[in-house]
Amino acid sequence: MQKRLFLLLLIMVGAIASVPAQTMMSVEVRETQVRSNPSFLGRIDAVLNYGDRVEVLEQAQGWSRVSHQGSAGWVHSSALTTKRIVMQAGEADAQRAASGSEVALAGRGFNQEVEDRYRAEQGLNYDAVDRMEGFAVEPERLAAFLNEGELRLPGGEQ
Predict the structure, then answer these.
(1) Whether residue 80 has pLDDT greater than 90
(2) Which helix (H) or strand (E) holds 122?
């Protein structure tokens, strides 16, 4: 009898240990897009905002498949943090939050402070860069361009 009880206990502990722990994360940029697949060309299915909590279902090549309010999709992992973000002052926190592109540039060591310093010390003019940053191309048009040119993104995805 004790052997059966011990065996049953081992099976239960093993079953509990094999269930992956849920990883909850927060959106740490002003807003980020939830895409249908792990690619910047994926269809945008939803938008998450600063402080939104998501459950991470899986991770692959810099992307996280997340679940939020019953729906799932892919978010670039750079937009997420394990820290719980608590909104205290309302939208003022979101106004101070970095956008996804600002986080990407800061990750490369370039931010507004660095740009201002280059502007002052080197006399550089970023007006053309600012105009280019204002251009937007829909993911569908970009995907059609890649397809027509028979181009592939790194990793073979399109």
Answers:
(1) yes
(2) helix 112-122
CA angle 96, 99, 104 (to 5 degrees): 125
Model pTM?
Answer: 0.53
Q: Domain 2-97 is of which CATH architecture?
A: Roll (2.30)
Please report, for residues 100, 112, 138, 144, 151, the alpha-carbon distance to residue 141 in angstroms, rounded to integers and kept in the order given: 21, 30, 5, 5, 14
CA distance 2 to 10: 12
User: Given a cut of 80, is residue 2 above it in pLDDT?
Assistant: no
What are the domain boundaries of the chain? Answer: 2-97, 111-152
Q: What are phi and psi of 2, to 5 degrees?
A: -65, -35
